[in-house]
Amino acid sequence: MQNISFLDLPGEIRNQIYIDVLILPPIFARRQLGSDPPIYPQILRVCKQVHEEAKQILYGGNVFIAHPNLLNGWPRLRWKYDTISSQNVIAYIKRYYLIVRLDCDPNFTAENAEKAFSGIEELTIRVEQAEFRGSDYQVLKLFEGVRGVKKTKVYGSMTGFPRYCEWLQVVMRTPREVEVTEFEKSDGVGAMKLWDVSG
Fold this sequence. Notes:
By secondary structure, the chain is of the alpha/beta class. The protein folds into two domains: 1-62, no CATH class; 64-179, no CATH class. The chain has five helices and five strands; from the N terminus they run ααββαβαββα. It has helices at 11-22, 48-61, 87-90, 110-117, 162-173, and strands at 64-67, 71-76, 95-101, 122-128, 151-156. Helix 1 crosses helix 2. It is elongated and about 75 Å long.
């Protein structure tokens, strides 16, 4: 009987093995806290060819947590993992998950956001704020220049401006060469008071 090595397997089978041992479920998928299945990045150490094949799946197929200030600089696979500093590795990452605080001054510009996320495969933005309806969508406007993202999702504490978030998702998916109509703000969009105290 002939011995078959891992590299003798068809590429499709090797890719499925890489997916099984290297891909985590999406960050926003419901599951028990800390119940991410283990991954086995040790497979990248098998040989040079396996390293080249597997790193594209590990870094290109997983959703990485973007840094709140540096965006695609220093991403991490999950909170329990270390950040990634190698620009060579970061270049493979095409799926990001970002938490955006509406009630804090952002430490990035619209230009930074556009450069970091335009043309990637997937961008999920989770919107947070400390006080219910305490902020409007001004911080999210920094993402209006992002273009060509294949899959977008904006969710979280966005009561008061869901129409804007839907519009922003479409804008970020729009190719750069296509002109986008500006968002038309209607009454009730933005920060809202729950009660009115008048004397």
